[in-house]
UniProtKB/TrEMBL annotation:
Protein name: Dioxygenase
Family annotation (CDD domains): 45_DOPA_Dioxygenase (cd07363)
Key words of the record: Dioxygenase, Metal-binding, Oxidoreductase, Zinc
Cofactor dependence: Zn(2+)
Pfam family of the protein (one): LigB
Domain of life from the UniProt record: Bacteria
Keyword Oxidoreductase appears in the UniProt entry: yes
Limits of the Extradiol ring-cleavage dioxygenase class III enzyme subunit B domain: 41-260
GO terms for MF: dioxygenase activity
Family statement: Belongs to the DODA-type extradiol aromatic ring-opening dioxygenase family.
InterPro entries linked to this entry: Extradiol_dOase_DODA, Xdiol_dOase_suB
Length: 263
């Protein structure tokens, strides 16, 4: 795994269940390796499925709180803090970049980091030494709209801002088994392999229509919010980027932790 020091990467990281916060597994280990190669990024600009709003919002708090937006998990998880700073300066840059491309966004001085953001970041940058700015997903966004959002913010990579989409490559919680297992539902691999192959082929039109074209597309995502950050990360890529798979791990037999890097 390598990174180009001249341009910050675009990443898609599957954050999985909140238990990922203290169960690193293969993905946590690989994120730790990748994080050591990132150098001194100016900021991390992140989109998570756990912040959906009416219209676009951009977090601007200089010291965003660690939000424990999950219920019924071990109490140890609620004590975890990820004390990264925010950056009002970069937040304004994000808003201005969106505005220059016809997208209105407001600054949110109160928003912290939901678990979709801080859980993977605690492995990627355990020292919490890079400012984090969160961008919301407008309610009822489509893959095309998430893609366009990523395209609009792709220029930030040239200014040293890492672009991060964090979600889950499969996310059918009706099939959640409650404990980890080595018995993976076959459809999980079939769907994940289809996504990876389309990315490698540059077949982005098929990706945008995954619900009709991918095997088990609607089973893998009964609702779309956890896959939309993948399209955000893809939109921020360029043809010059090298695509790398960070991990193909599967948890609980149905939750693909597949994660990708473009650099």
């Amino acid at each position: 795994m390598s990174t180009n020091p001249d341009t910050a990467p675009s990443l898609f990281i599957s954050h999985g269940a909140p238990t990922f916060a203290d169960q690193p597994g293969e993905l946590g280990y690989r994120l730790g390796q990748l994080g050591q190669m990132l150098g001194s990024a100016r900021a991390i600009v992140a989109v998570s499925p756990h912040w959906e709003t009416n219209g676009l919002r951009v977090s601007s708090h200089p010291s965003p709180e660690t939000i424990h937006d999950f219920y019924g998990f071990p109490k140890e998880l609620y004590a975890i803090q990820y004390p990264a700073h925010g950056s009002p300066e970069v937040a304004k840059l994000v808003v201005d970049t969106l505005a220059s491309n016809g997208l209105d966004a407001g600054l949110d001085p109160d928003r912290g980091m939901d678990h979709g953001v801080w859980v993977p970041l605690r492995y990627l940058r355990p020292l919490a030494d890079i400012p984090v700015i969160c961008v919301s997903l407008p309610i009822n966004s489509t893959p095309d709209q998430a893609w366009h959002l990523g395209q609009t913010l792709a220029v930030l990579r040239q200014y040293g801002c890492l672009v991060l989409g964090t979600g889950s490559l499969t996310h059918n919680l009706a099939e959640f088994r409650g404990s980890n297992t080595d018995q993976v539902s076959p459809y999980v691999h079939e769907f994940a392999n289809w996504i990876e192959d389309r990315i490698k082929d540059g077949d982005y039109d098929s990706l945008l229509h995954y619900r009709e074209l991918a095997p088990h597309g609607q089973r893998a995502h009964p609702t779309e919010e956890h896959l939309l950050p993948l399209f955000f990360a893809l939109g921020a890529t360029s043809k010059a980027d090298r695509f790398e798979v960070i991990s193909r791990e599967v948890r609980y037999g149905m939750l693909s932790m597949a994660s990708y890097c473009w650099q």
